[in-house]
Design a protein that fits this description.
It is a single chain. The protein has 13 helices and seven strands. By secondary structure, it is α/β, with parallel strands linked by helices. The protein folds into two domains: 153 residues, NAD(P)-binding Rossmann-like Domain (Rossmann fold, 3-Layer(aba) Sandwich), CATH 3.40.50; 114 residues, N-(1-d-carboxylethyl)-l-norvaline Dehydrogenase, domain 2, CATH 1.10.1040.10. It has a seven-stranded mixed sheet with strand order 2-1-3-4-5-6-7, with helices on both faces. Helix 4 links the parallel strand 4 and strand 5. The N and C termini lie far apart (63 Å).
Length: 291
Amino acid sequence: MQLGLVGLGRMGGNMRGRLRAAGHEVIGYDRNPEVSDVESLAGLIERLASPRVVWVMVPAGVTDATIDELSGLLSEGDLIIDGGNSRFSDDAPRAERLGKVGIGYMDVGVSGGVWGLENGYALMVGGDAEHVARLAPIFEALKPEGQFGFVHAGPVGAGHYAKMVHNGIEYGLMHAYAEGYELLTKSEIITDVPGVIKSWREGSVVESWLLDLLDRALDADPELAALSGYTEDTGEGRWTVEEAIRLAVPMNVIAASLFARFVSRQDDSPAMKAVSALRQQFGGHAVRKSS
């Protein structure tokens, strides 16, 4: 099957490689000419046979501009897929806008990171059933082998919604591992912290791919000395918590993990200064003076 792919970064570039390895014809465009197959979006569309399918894998901040440019180049019966980390509420307006000129739209949440080329990608799809069926060979090539790793989650928006929740869960899991790791490092009786993490990788109820990645990081840097604790968030965690508030769903762990990322960005947290001041005021507790 022929596919146009816009955005050939860490995810898009590996997706192109996996699809080509499965026998599909993928023509990619990227602003970086060293990895791009064509010089422009217009050049990409010229290379595709009608009806065309274009999969967009660009940062959320430029997704709408990219889709708008594509819509001026595509024709009735063509199809655009957004596989980036867009907010789910953006999908329905895009689909409506494109539908007015006869262009189909799907949203696909993609998980797999830099390991997807080898292991495959988990795909969470939102869109019409006919569009999902049309792209079945592409989805089959991208997903891991076997029965898992793909879902038609619902109509337009459902793919990105599922990916949002997926990433919210990821926040909580990562922070649980991180807190356990810190406690191990502070213990007086644990002498091999990386070894403990490694012992959990098989036979344990907490084994997971994330744990494997933590073990890999500790193999390279046993004390994580080369890393800063500053941790970004890309939006999905915030959106998940916002949805929890809207739907009155208790989400203690995911919310706490999101706020912990905010704490990581404060060298000297004003909130924690206030806590120290209050403890000193009501209980005379010792406090550390700022250096």
